[in-house]
## 1
Amino acid sequence: MTVALLESLPDRPGPDTPVIAADLIVNPDAPNARYSDMVWPLSPLNANPSASRNALHLDAFPAPLREEFTYLAWSMINRTLPDDFLVGRVQTWRTRQSPGKLYSTVQRWKALAEWLVKRDITTLAQCTSEEIRAFALDNLRTSKSREYAGSFLTSISRLWAFDFYGAQPLGIGEPPWHWEGIVGVRTFLPRCVQMNVPSCQATSVSRSMALRRFLSR
């Protein structure tokens, strides 16, 4: 099952394809970039004039992987996650993200792209589940909050989903936390969450509950 695509969009964008489909624009006065532009303002998605004016800077991605990540970013903006992927996940999993969340997600994708290029991986087809594991561990090895870890893992899950359910998948490896269960997910959590140290948690959620929340994101 492929991700849902607005009828007004092509299966694959061309250089002049609008970054944001007309059906999604809530601020018609904001500039809408073309697919070939290196800067994509997200303001057309936000009707609040006082909101942060986030923009995606595609030129910040390393050149070998820029085209692939650009396409997946466009897919994430314009497509929705399929029901097949959302089954069993908590309701906070949105089919579409707010402009601010889109920006944060793409920033984490950029970090992955930079990490891959340093290891001579120049296409997402070469990015296996073990590379995904190593990248996540590198970024979550320092003490961070449960919320940060969950948001980080979710960003990478979205990357995989928009590729896997796309019309022409690149073949990026599936994140291992999708199938490893509670024991596997524990590997990616901050140590204070693993140990259930009260000072490290915003609530009194038990360790098992925290782990289940990660599994269902």
## 2
Amino acid sequence: MEIVSYVVDEPFAESTRYFKIALVAFLSTFMIFSAVSFLLFRIKKKEAEYEKLVRVLGISNNEVEFSTRAIGEEYASGDYLLPLAFVTTVCLFGFSMLLFGADLVSLNPGKSNMLLTGMLPNNALIYLRERFRIFSENSNDRSHDLPLQMIEGINMFHKVRLGEVGIDNAQNLAEANVIELFLKTPFNPSQLVDWVAQAKLYVYFKEDIEKLRRIGIRTIFDLCPLCEHQEQLAQLAEEVRISKLSLEMICDRLRADNGVARLYQFHGLLSTMDVMKETSTL
């Protein structure tokens, strides 16, 4: 009995392999191109925006130097060498396993995709903790979490970016140096001031924050005016079912907090600047 064998010709196999190699090289060097473009173009725009913001907010040079480093030092090119080398190496292995996994893993090429989790471990851990209770600690064994997702306007992307500057909960955000946030994060200054104002209110009221939001009090800017009127404060205490004594103590702490006064100043100046921008576009 004669056995006839057939050879399947794959005319595009070689070109497909070269295409995958080129794709791996392109994707792996994407972060390098992004960093170079940032250092050459974006950093100049960032410096101009920061200098304009310093002038508008009336921040003295001494205060800026005390609270933050110079922008050139903050974004020094030498600081990017090691992270870029690490990210590029990880991307090379990760994308190679993703695109060539079918050739390397005979049982299930999809298993190679799990290596991509190592490229963004913080994102994966945050997702698991929020998605599955089994990855969360026992709430009875710790103080109130004050999670950032309770701040209106903050999503997963914002949490990751804030985590890069050491802010992983609302207490950190409430006590953060706003000037440093202007410098080190890509977010709008007015948005940052609003988040910090929300965080300060959340730190004091914790789980009662939802009661305040239901009646239109979402930041310290909404609460502080009520602190000056005892009748309105008593009405607020009755409405949200919080003791008036607690509200008075919180009001006293807000009055004594220099950060609140500075936040009020920034809020007023930024609001004026936003109005001027809107007027100029009309």
## 3
Amino acid sequence: MRGHITQRSKGTYSIKISIGKDPATGKYKSQWFTVKGSKRDAEKRLSELLHQIDTGNYMKPGKTTVADYLRR
């Protein structure tokens, strides 16, 4: 499973993606996102997230400084 979409309410969808294994524990990690709009918007966002993971450009949301980003 790479990612899937579920409808939460009218006009709101949840996206769950697998971001790979945690090297320390060996367990798979996942990340949840909320998209407001149509299902097509959610599918587009899922595609963007999976592309970022595949190309190595995905950064987990958080407080990342420019210096931390450039060190990657």
## 4
Amino acid sequence: TATALGASGLKASAAAYEKFTWISPRGTLEVLDDYPYWSAKKAGYFGDLATDMQPGPSDGTATVKFVDVGQADMG
């Protein structure tokens, strides 16, 4: 249990996002991979959250590396 591991006083908290960075798994944003995002954005699901959309490298697994090191929130 968490108590047995010495984590009894820890509480999880998440900071609110003000800006969201998404890196495309392709080298361009001119494909429909991001269509679900734009549909949700237009419907108001993200409120006034600023979004930074960036074309990613051509290597499909590279976007995971960007997320891992904190350079992107989603890839």
